[in-house]
């Protein structure tokens, strides 16, 4: 099935219509009763929420790793610098002091730990929303609108600027749901390598893949 291209920053629309809607009042997975006309927006909303969960889980892991590296460099580098000074290795001590200063300045300037906690908070908010949807026994238009409003409020607090990383998360969720290759974005190796830092072109739309 051909999918229309939309921005990867809003996957809800891209996935709308990927599944054939059941008859009126048919039960969806988990015993959830969903009217035919609401199935597509519900699937799209659920997909977008899970993409957001994947995105912020990756951001949390990235910032946690940077924080740990900075702390290890600061701790080991300072100890090694003292040892180098006692050993008369002035040049080595200077290099270690510079490394410690860079690590400390990076942590202070970029706030790796704080940004990791922020990503974790956003991940938990997306998870809570996904759990609310999963627990619902039935879905009506008002409930669907409230869930979408909650998703948009989370998005308003997000920093989802890394388009390539978002597309990677989009592809992972699409693959997990069994969508075929025509539902995936093409992500080049160099884009994937630097996805946690910067988004590099090209940005091919979905319909150009497959």
Structure characteristics:
mainly alpha; 7 helices; 65% helix; two-stranded antiparallel sheet; 210 residues
Contiguous runs where pLDDT drops below 50 for at least 5 residues = 1-9, 11-27
C-alpha geometry: elongated
Query: Biggest sheet, open or closed, and with what strands and sense?
Result: 2 strands, antiparallel
- What's the arrangement of strands in the largest beta sheet? 1-2
SSE order in H/E notation? HEEHHHHHH
From the N-terminal CA to the C-terminal CA, the straight-line distance is: 11 Å
Helix content: 55-70%
How many DSSP helices? 7
The chain-level structural class is: mainly alpha
What does this structure look like?
It is a single chain. With 210 residues, the chain is mainly alpha-helical. Helix content is 65%, strand content 2%. It has a domain at 162-210. The protein is built from 7 helices and 2 strands. The chain has a two-stranded antiparallel ribbon with strand order 1-2. Helix 2 runs antiparallel to helix 3, helix 2 (36-86) packs parallel to helix 5 and helix 2 crosses helix 6. The termini are close together. Residues 1-9 and 11-27 have low confidence and may be disordered.
């Amino acid at each position: 099935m051909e999918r229309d291209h939309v921005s990867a920053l809003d996957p809800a629309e891209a996935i709308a219509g990927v599944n054939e809607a059941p008859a009126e009042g048919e039960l969806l997975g988990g015993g959830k009763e969903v009217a035919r006309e609401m199935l597509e927006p519900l699937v799209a909303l659920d997909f977008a929420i899970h993409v957001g969960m994947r995105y912020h889980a990756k951001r949390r892991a990235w910032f946690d790793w940077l924080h740990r590296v900075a702390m290890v460099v600061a701790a080991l580098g300072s100890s090694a610098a003292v040892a180098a000074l006692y050993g008369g290795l002035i040049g080595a001590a200077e290099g270690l002091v510079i490394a410690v200063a860079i690590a400390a300045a990076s942590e202070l300037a970029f706030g790796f730990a704080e940004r990791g906690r922020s990503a974790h908070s956003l991940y938990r908010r997306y998870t809570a929303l996904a759990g609310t949807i999963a627990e619902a026994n039935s879905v009506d238009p008002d409930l669907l609108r409230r869930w979408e409003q909650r998703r948009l409020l989370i998005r308003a607090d997000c920093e989802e600027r890394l388009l390539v990383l978002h597309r990677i998360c989009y592809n992972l969720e699409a693959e997990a749901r069994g969508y075929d290759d025509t539902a995936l974005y093409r992500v080049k190796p160099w884009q994937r390598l630097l996805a946690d830092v910067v988004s590099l072109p090209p940005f091919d739309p979905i319909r150009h893949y497959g």
